[in-house]
Amino acid sequence: MSDASLQPHTSADTGEAGFGDFVALLKPRVMSLVVFTALVGVLVAPNPVHPFVVFTSILFIALGGGASGALNMWWDADIDRVMKRTQGRPIPSGKVAEGEALGIGMALSGIAVVMLGLAGNVFAGALLAFTIFFYVVIYTIWLKRWTPQNIVIGGAAGAFPPMIGWAVATGGISIESILMFAIIFMWTPPHFWALALFMNDDYTKAKVPMLTVTHGRKSTRNHILVYTLLLAPVALSISFTSIGGPIYFAVSAVLNFMFIWGAFGLWKRQEADAEADKYQSERKFFRLSLYYLFLHFTALLVQSAVGPTWGAIL
After folding, report:
1. Were both Cys, which of 1, 92, 110, 313 would link to 81 (CB 3.0–4.6 Å)?
2. 62, 26, 15: which is closest to 42 by C-alpha?
3. Domains contained in the chain, number
4. What confidence tens digit (pLDDT) does each residue in 232-255 have?
């Protein structure tokens, strides 16, 4: 395959797109994570927010996340056609034209940012605008095809939603919102590197410089263990802030023990064994990483709802 086939913005034969195709363009699975972590950011903040403001703010944060997904698919249409995992997406499958994806992404970005600024506050709207810019320009256009650190640096884009939610409630940032950001930021590399361990052929074909492609699977396993060990104290540290407490601490302690144990198991794996069982352990660790993040933010919600938080105790 020639390098020319991997250039962005190639034309596609488009078919009749249905409503579901346009929904898929917004990456609803990713959007669900954006919505959930942003909602947690709003609800655990110290300032009460009117339910209507919460609803409208989360709606426009979700639109901003969807806009980012559409713009990501527009730019990555060429490599999506090459990768088995992404060939069924709306653009490579010919359902949505690249120009349509670009238009939808730009329009939704503008609507989301302006309306969040009106529904929430200007700071939250500006933070959403920066998040969209970071994901589309810094990660998708620049880092993803340039460096194996793409996921490490680019992971910041997915870590901003709880900060945006917190900003809706408070109009600013704090140590609590920074630590919520830090959990997702530190979680993203082991999460995606686990995926890359069993999807490495896709990244190789698409010439995306994931760590598995540039440094090999053994180095990737080492990196997963290191980042998992660094993640644990970050996650546990929220226990001792105003939004943490004994419930969150207990949940986080169990989850981090399981995550470290899983990462250690991957670190010990020999490649021959992984190939023999079709990377089952790597797939299990990837699924565990999804539960890890979801349950941490669920624990923050439960802690806030039933208390007592350390802020109340102290």
Report:
1. 92
2. 62
3. 2
4. 999 999 999 999 999 999 999 999
Looking at the fold, whether 65 and 123 belong to one and the same domain comes out as yes
Which CATH number is 95's domain given? 1.10.357.140
Question: Which residues lie below 8 Å from residue 155, measured CB to CB, with a gap of 6+?
Answer: 184, 185, 187, 188, 189, 192
pLDDT at 313: 57
Whether 179 and 307 share a structural domain: yes
Q: Is residue 12 part of a domain?
A: no
Instruction: Name, in order, each residue with C-beta under 8 angstroms of 83's C-beta and a sequence gap of 6 or more.
Output: 199, 202, 203, 205, 206
Residue at 13 is within a domain: no
The reply to whether 142 and 262 lie within a common domain is: no
Phi, psi of 291 (to 5 degrees): -65, -35
Boundary-marking domain end, from 133, 148, 172 = 172
Mean pLDDT of 43-63: 95
- Does the residue 167 lie in any domain? yes
